[in-house]
Design a protein that fits this description.
By secondary structure, the protein is α/β, with parallel strands linked by helices. The protein has 6 helices and 7 strands, in the order βαβαβαβαββααβ. Strand 2 (32-37), helix 2 (57-74) and strand 3 form a beta-alpha-beta unit. Helix 3 (93-106) crosses helix 4 (124-139).
């Protein structure tokens, strides 16, 4: 059955490194995916763009939007940005209302976002807290409420840059082997952070090794790791 996937990143390229393969798997199977960036990462994530003379915030945001939209389209997703600013990312009441409205409009089956801890990035934990709160508010904690609500979406965290320092405990591996070249192509679009392409290519190979050892499925060459945040409800083992 096709799924609706909502990927919430603090910055416009966060989805790309951590979950582009998962997105491509979803859309290749008839699912729908929306990438929602809370900011463009115009201040803290766009160092290469700021090397250009006479650069401006608005031009950096424009470039980041074009690149993120193109990268998302390569893996079959839509892209939106709330443009809340970065370093620091701040989620006031108005920003939370916007995030809740996107969740209510999209009615996702699955939400992906950052870990609660990231000692190297001030904005990623802010995104985590916002998604946690918005998910609870929009679903009414899974019971009838006095407002329009959706069924509680499944909730996963995607892998941070240094998982061992971010309290990330992967319990789900997505085989992205059939769509890996789409991820590589999408990563190549993000010129402002091209230095991350090699790192996340190697990580996908390493996680593929882990997935093979866990499952015995020798055809898995590349994988993305996730951490599930809510219990799995099933009818049988």
């Amino acid at each position: 059955m096709s799924k609706k996937l909502l990927v919430v990143g603090a910055h416009s390229a966060d989805f790309l490194w951590r979950s582009a393969g998962t997105i491509a798997v979803t859309t290749s199977r008839g699912g729908d995916a929306l990438v929602l960036a809370l900011s463009y990462g115009e201040r803290g994530e766009s160092g290469e763009l700021w090397k250009q003379s006479d650069q401006t915030i608005e031009n950096v945001k424009r470039i980041r939007h074009v690149q993120a939209e193109q990268a998302a389209s390569i893996v079959g997703a839509r892209f939106e940005c709330l443009d809340l600013g970065d370093y620091p990312l701040r989620m006031d009441d108005g920003a939370m209302d916007k995030l809740i409205e996107v969740m209510r409009r999209e009615v996702p089956d699955v939400i992906l976002t950052h870990t609660a801890v990231d000692p190297f990035n001030p904005d990623h934990p802010v995104a985590y807290q916002a998604v946690q709160q918005a998910r609870l508010l929009v679903s009414g904690a899974g019971v009838a409420s006095a407002f329009a609500r959706i069924n509680p979406p499944d909730w996963y965290l995607f892998e941070p840059h240094q998982p061992e320092l971010s309290e990330f405990y992967p319990d789900t591996f997505i085989d992205i082997t059939p769509v890996f070249q789409q991820k590589v192509e999408a990563m190549s679009v993000m010129g402002a952070q091209s230095y991350l392409k090699d790192y996340y290519t190697e990580l996908a190979s390493r996680r593929g090794n882990h997935a093979r050892r866990i499952s015995g499925r020798q055809e898995v060459r590349y994988a993305e790791a996730l951490q599930r945040m809510v219990p799995l409800v099933i009818s049988e083992l």
